[in-house]
């Protein structure tokens, strides 16, 4: 693997999940694989889970780690070509990426969208230019429109939390009795958030659905449709109650509008996930990428119940990152 | 040990000091003890000595380290339960602590008091909730009311700087000729500082006094009494000159008032420690946890003299942290 | 080596370059040399290349690393003696440096000039006091007036990019056919920048010229003369076109005026390096320490051409740092 930006960079999601769960059983089985290999983790935005879990994964593989917090430890980068750099940006991404590529065998990059212009954010200019100029394999630690390490983790968590079996012959997971119903539901929030997590989760679940692993439903208010390229095959509704019926997994997430780009167009708190809302589900497991605002996005009663698997989900970030790093280090 | 928050978490202060001084002689004797163990160092406030010495101690034991600076690299955490998180806090301590617990075998946490309400700070809500939710052994890197790694270091420094012997049979230090007189004296400062260091030093010295290791005196101006639970058995006076007489160790520290909580009620610069003030002492060694404001808290003439052992004291932070980590790793 | 602050701290620039290029061929040949040795990297200012390359070099030698970002993770340091610290500085450099010396076998320090008073900056008070008080070997990661790791890298890059041979008998490089003409040229910028990089480059090139390795020319507008102690033997001109004639290497760099200290006295954009300007050169290689403002300092057409070796140059930072660390660790 030369790039981990989207589900499309994974040749087999089943094998990737298997590799991650193998690491969960035996974290140090490849502890020399990354010896004399350096990963550079470049943060243009805050990070807790991604920062810690990716470092932990790299350490489990014996890699060296360089962390660069561009905002506090560095300076602003320019991405536009053909403009004289007379403003606030001190370095062009062409040089910054190429230099970091000189110091590292693998790079991880986190850069949030500006949420001003859809076209600008969805061009993924920053990530794609960085990838092009650094000249090394690169892992998204969340880009403007996708968060693949999170979605890979989400799939791992669904697989390990439901009745799946792994077929060693065709190297595929399959649901032993029935496919789970996985529902991604929008929920309220006080701030305008990126669409990266829901886009990415949708993309991975659509792929999982295409491979017969899940049934996938998205529920959101009017005006909150995700960009269609990420939701092909999903059953989409604006009726949350209907969507939650018989759900096995409820993935809760706020996002700002894609249509009215970056705006909060719905403040209907009735979309918050509560115990009451879960009554129609199949005793569904509740998931969220975190951080989550309690009693805004999800009620505390849910987060503190056994139905919540958000901590297990966050813990799995390590194994997702480790499986991705392995594929990069072994050039699979 | 499952928690290092206070002197009460140490079963034997003598054995702890012995363990630390053994590491000072031979830093790498347990260099594989922490292999495949990760410590997460979580800073909600600035740190120099604690940051560097705890990392060094962990490296000496072969541990992996994850550092998380919440302010610059992360976001604000909520501690209150039952409130809708519509404000500035982006994540609840319940999730943040639990997630960090997923990534680490040991956690270290630094969080200063707000110095607004004594009850709030002295509830140690942040530390105790973090400890409860992370599910892993946790080390205080300075909490609202205590700084045990500092006080442990202080005891180590006193033991190694005076005529003590270690009795291998009862595993206790004892003063060979006489007990030293240890004086904690308040000193002026331009800012309102926490009581964590003096509370903690008092707590450790009271324990040392109870075990026959020192005679302990506290001197402070009117209105600067520490909370009594930390000073049981201490000889307390508002007469600094009297206190300093025949002192063997003078521990200098400013703190804001506990009675008039968080306020500076005394600006009497005559409490600054000078060479003159030390004349009545038994050629006392001068200690301070650092950072120290020169010629405000302690005169430069004292800090630059041979009587000052503040650098040796700071150096000992490594061995204190290493001894604590060992107890946690070996579940002593 | 006990200090790496200037070219004067290197006993032989040829042997130093040879050592660095040996590491470039075989980065891990001394991977146990730094075992149980800790380097502390202390940043008072932002850093990308220096931060990452020095860490990488230390890792290649098996060292432990402690990073301290004073601004975000710590507090302001006082350098003046004999003043009561009643202001914004929380710790004196005497204590801070000595304490860091307790935790580390080697220290690296980055501290920019204030660009207010030449005398203050050129006294190098911060670096020299830190070096004196820390009691350990210290490496400049860029000081107020010099940036020796950068200049060492620059010499490495020139040696490996031209027709040099290494004489094993006298342990000297020599130019096989002819000496290259190396031109340091001032270029425009929007901000007032330190003179550290040009001072340091000049100092190293003057030494290289004295050893018969290069011919060295400096071109700058009126009012931009560097302090003469750094340019002894250099051919200095205010005619950029004349300077560039037959140049083999063009080192481009902005600096603020030394004469009218810290000021921007020339805003003549015609000093920017373009393809046109390079036509009179001997197909010169173009160098810059980075970060570089495109189309302000150097035209994009040049940076994107094969004549630019700025990325190779930045990559060599690792080997320069590694060669310096080796000399310190082996006490050569």
TrEMBL record, chains A, B, C:
Pfam families in alphabetical order: OTCace, OTCace_N
Binding site for carbamoyl phosphate: 47-50, 75, 110, 147-150, 289-290, 317
All residue ranges annotated as the Aspartate/ornithine carbamoyltransferase Asp/Orn-binding domain in the record: 216-326
GO molecular function: amino acid binding; ornithine carbamoyltransferase activity
Catalytic activity: N(2)-succinyl-L-ornithine + carbamoyl phosphate = N(2)-succinyl-L-citrulline + phosphate + H(+)
Keyword Zinc-finger belongs to the record: no
Keywords associated with the record: Amino-acid biosynthesis, Arginine biosynthesis, Transferase
Binding-site list for N(2)-succinyl-L-ornithine: 142, 189, 253, 293
Keyword Amino-acid biosynthesis: yes
GO biological process: citrulline biosynthetic process; L-arginine biosynthetic process via ornithine
Role description: Catalyzes the transfer of the carbamoyl group from carbamoyl phosphate to the delta-amino group of N(2)-succinyl-L-ornithine to produce N(2)-succinyl-L-citrulline. Is essential for arginine biosynthesis.
Subunit architecture: Homotrimer.
Family recorded in the similarity comment: Belongs to the aspartate/ornithine carbamoyltransferase superfamily. SOTCase family.
Protein name, as recorded: N-succinylornithine carbamoyltransferase
Source organism: Myroides indicus
Protein encoded by which gene: argF'
